[in-house]
Design a protein that fits this description.
single chain; alpha/beta; 6-stranded mixed sheet; 4-stranded mixed sheet
Length: 153
């Protein structure tokens, strides 16, 4: 099948069939599912690599408390080919863990104002262990080398 390029809004009343591949720019709206073909496991306190975060899904099955430091804005921005306005969701799955996972900010990767103002929700940097142990963090790039993040689920 030939490659097709669209400009302007695209609407589907019955959904799209097949996988969306490549870089998508602009507004993407709709419902459905997101499947992470690749995930990363971090089972001990560490700094996540940009490649691990770029998978969008990190698991932890540690019996001990684990702290995951996010990569610098420069490293993560390069891995994601980010620019001002890039938005990226990162899921932390601790359903198989026996202790909490804490997210730690990095250089040029800071907790958003909403996170600071609402530490118990948007700023919750701890993902509990067990069946409710999944957190989603939205990273919003203010430049190619800096991002702010907020817990969004």
């Amino acid at each position: 099948m030939a490659s097709t390029t669209f400009s302007g809004p695209i609407t589907s009343t019955n959904g799209f069939i097949g996988a969306l591949t490549g870089n998508v720019t602009g507004n993407v709206a709709g419902s459905g599912r997101i499947t992470h073909a690749t995930t990363s496991a971090i089972n001990a306190t560490a700094t996540a690599t940009a490649a691990e975060v770029a998978t969008g899904y990190i698991t932890s099955t540690s019996a001990a408390a684990t702290a995951i430091t996010l990569p610098t804005g420069t490293l993560l921005g390069a891995a994601l080919s980010a620019a001002k306005g890039t938005i990226f969701d990162l899921y932390i799955d601790n359903t198989g863990g026996a202790s909490s996972v804490s997210i730690v900010a990095a250089v040029n990767g800071i907790l958003s104002t909403a996170g600071v103002d609402s530490a118990g929700s948007f700023g919750d940097l701890t993902v509990a262990a067990g069946v409710t142990g999944i957190g989603r963090y939205t990273l919003m790039f203010s430049s190619a080398t800096a991002y702010v993040f907020t817990r969004t689920a």
